[in-house]
Give the backbone structure.
Amino acid sequence: MLMLVSCAVGGRAQSVALKTNLLSDVMLTPTLGIETGLAPKWSVELTGMLNAWEVNDHIFKQWQLKPELRYWFCQRFSGHFVGAHLIAGQFNFGNIDNGIKFLGTDFSKLSDRRYQGWDFGAGLAYGYAWILSKHWNLEAEIGLGWIHARFDEFRCADCGKKLRSNLTHNYFGPTKAAINLVCTF
């Protein structure tokens, strides 16, 4: 019933959208995405994120690209959608004092180590887009999937001695969380 109502409210035929993930932006990881329509119920999105900052000697540098193919249950850029996304990027993390362990990943190791490497993966997502006005939407999305990382481990956060090379880690869990502000054309 909700899907029928959301399809009937505000159908339109925009073909391109520019977006930013407000959740990432607040965390000082700016994101920019572009999405284009392929067919009335299909679109493809490419999102890029960049974090190149060091804050209080904490290193959390990364870039990542996430292409996603989406199927819209009503009409693209409106209502419910599901997507399949890929993930690729590089990272340099260290000197982040914490005690977090989450889904098999021990983030507390970032307290006295630095990890530098690359990652890739894939996931599935679900989301919903609310039409705010003729050219503005608000979109929420959550994704689950797998990420494989290959990296080197260093002793300290700055320039310490390399301890181990060519390590790997596989992560299964959330791969996408977004509240996107969207401008459609």
Remarks:
- The first strand starts at residue 16 and ends at 21.
